[in-house]
User: Fold these one by one.
Assistant:
Number 1:
Amino acid sequence: AQSVTQLDSHVSVSEGTPVLLRCNYSSSYSPSLFWYVQHPNKGLQLLLKYTSAATLVKGINGFEAEFKKSETSFHLTKPSAHMSDAAEYFCVVNTPNTDKLIFGTGTRLQVFP
Amino acid sequence: GAGVSQSPSNKVTEKGKDVELRCDPISGHTALYWYRQRLGQGLEFLIYFQGNSAPDKSGLPSDRFSAERTGESVSTLTIQRTQQEDSAVYLCASSLASATYNEQFFGPGTRLTVL
């Protein structure tokens, strides 16, 4: 069965420092993987997606993620955090032969000045 | 253009009452999804539609939950005999064809409180 595990429920960083949000997946097929962001009082928005093309995926707002099959990981990174990055981030995997998506439990990112 | 809209934005109801939540997807999006998000938790898949058909209803928590979609457009999620554990934000999303390859666009959600 497909699943994702977000290894940290909370991550705190200082503005201007790197961000790393960790995600491991489990899939018996070649998965499609996504990162979505949920800002307070706003709807969920797609950050980036991996669908078996390039393993390094660039998304919006300077975020990127690397698909590592050997490590079954899809960690989200950003070189320099901005205050506006404070939000909840969800790692998502698809299920094969259906359009059902499985969401991780989320990582809350706090950015301190 | 208009995004996904949901109504009502907030609903407070008494235990045992029925509620109906509405989702208007983006025009032309054939796939529509319902999720539940309990306070401080991730999204829990409930059901999705391709057109007016629901290939996967496996996430519906109980037979008190049902959903329908008409005209490949509006969808309603109905919860009968609501219980306190039904309190959550119910999110709707739509996408072009397959969400595996296409971005899901989310509505603002309906916050349901069961007293």
Note: The first strand of chain B starts at residue 5 and ends at 7.
Number 2:
Amino acid sequence: DAMVIQNPRYQVTQFGKPVTLSCSQTLNHNVMYWYQQKSSQAPKLLFHYYDKDFNNEADTPDNFQSRRPNTSFCFLDIRSPGLGDAAMYLCATSRGPLDGETQYFGPGTRLLVL
Amino acid sequence: SQQGEEDPQALSIQEGENATMNCSYKTSINNLQWYRQNSGRGLVHLILIRSNEREKHSGRLRVTLDTSKKSSSLLITASRAADTASYFCATPGGDKIIFGKGTRLHILP
């Protein structure tokens, strides 16, 4: 089945130790998104790629970076995780960046920062 | 901000009852989506309703859209334990969608 896969599902890191979360998709969608979601809150968009074009949200901290080496894969790098970065990180895809295009989500990676 | 606001924030009902949650938004939109999120999981798209549609059905789900009131409702009929989840409305925001804060629905046995 076509899907969005995130690895790992749970990630524990130490304060200040870089961590990379990965996302892959078999949907062949053009757009990939990274969201941060804290407990009982709405998903917050960090950035998205339309093909290779990178779009950063204005309030995404510099501590967060992303790479998309090809259509199928996208990575979220957190250079120096702080306690406030503990959250669920959701990857999503859509066919295009059109207004209100349906998004398909992976199961998420829960990040714990010690 | 275009972020929709769901109401109520939390809802508990008995299994078999109907659940209604509402979403209000501020600016004109051409469509609105509803998503479900089970605890600790990703979001799942439920339904998209366009601005020229007043009502849409999908199985036990019924969504309405009132563009004059800038509001939408999601009705889940004959609720089941598996419907326990958070429900988010999402409105377009340029090349992305913006999620509301969600309604946490709990179905009691």
Note: The first strand of chain B starts at residue 5 and ends at 7.
Number 3:
Amino acid sequence: AQSVTQLDSHVSVSEGTPVLLRCNYSSSYSPSLFWYVQHPNKGLQLLLKYTSAATLVKGINGFEAEFKKSETSFHLTKPSAHMSDAAEYFCVVSDRASKIIFGSGTRLSIRP
Amino acid sequence: EAGVAQSPRYKIIEKRQSVAFWCNPISGHATLYWYQQILGQGPKLLIQFQNNGVVDDSQLPKDRFSAERLKGVDSTLKIQPAKLEDSAVYLCASSSDPFKAFFGQGTRLTVV
């Protein structure tokens, strides 16, 4: 069985400072991992994905994530937060059966 | 390309009433998912179709929820009778491979 745990329900950072959203996964197989963002009253948007190629994955809007098998982690980072980054972020795991499982989400707030 | 279409966008019903949601996936996508996203939580997979067959419905409350995907294209999700705890956003997604799922805008259901 596979699962994903987002370690923080809410993260607050100042504009211009780094962002770190933490995610740990559990999977019986080599997983595919994703980060999605959901802005208020908007649909889910794919930020980036890991599918067993390079362990450091670059996504849209300056976000990136590193797959660390030894730590079963897939943390999302951004060097400098922008006000428009305020949203809900979901870490997602998928297996060979095309099953897509979401984490509980991390709400990112940006302080001016 | 056209996205995943869902209707209605919003629905308010009284408890014990019935409601149905419709999803039209991206053309050619064999896999279709229905998720339930309760406020403050991550989306929970209700049912996954591969063409018109059910792959996974382990988290679908079958005493009140039903879903079908006739002809392997569009899909309907029904709740009968609705309970207060069914208030949520119902998301539909489709994919041609597990690494690239597309989500609709969702239907926000309020049960009063």
Note: Chain B touches chain A at residues 31, 33, 35, 40-45, 48, 50, 55-56, 91, 93, 95, 97-101, 103-106 (CB under 8 Å).
Number 4:
Amino acid sequence: LAKTTQPISMDSYEGQEVNITCSHNNIATNDYITWYQQFPSQGPRFIIQGYKTKVTNEVASLFIPADRKSSTLSLPRVSLSDTAVYYCLVAGANNLFFGTGTRLTVIP
Amino acid sequence: DVKVTQSSRYLVKRTGEKVFLECVQDMDHENMFWYRQDPGLGLRLIYFSYDVKMKEKGDIPEGYSVSREKKERFSLILESASTNQTSMYLCLTGGIWYEQYFGPGTRLTVT
């Protein structure tokens, strides 16, 4: 069963690139990796999803090494509005595990 | 647009009451999940279902039960609410492996 591990918190200044890494050593062959963003009093919101290598969309990039035992969410040039909790999720046909989330604080 | 709705955004119940939380999705998703979210503990899986009338225990099923009589509807039941069940409850739906969507959440307070 794929459990995930993330740093509890991170701080960053506005305009910097932020990388949040999630470990998932027991990921299964068919599992996907998804990242969510959550603001207070709201449900998590989908950011990006990948299986291997690199995925990029208008919001973020996701880097997944060949062994897929970890993944890194990259947020380019963060702003104050990016302050939130970021969750890594490993999802397959028979499991769906969230990390405990990383609280990102963007500092002016 | 995918729509995942939960029956209430805020709910206050008394200890010992039976509580029903309902999640409804309109995307014909097979998988539906119930999580609770508490400060410092992240998202913890309570129960999930892969099909009508199917249910599986998650990490913390004690004190909860579920019902899935129709594909679009997944109910979480607190048979006898207790104060330690005060939490944010989130429903998640998804197709196989991807297309996961959260509901808006229900903040339950048990007094």
Note: Chain A has one domain: 9-107.
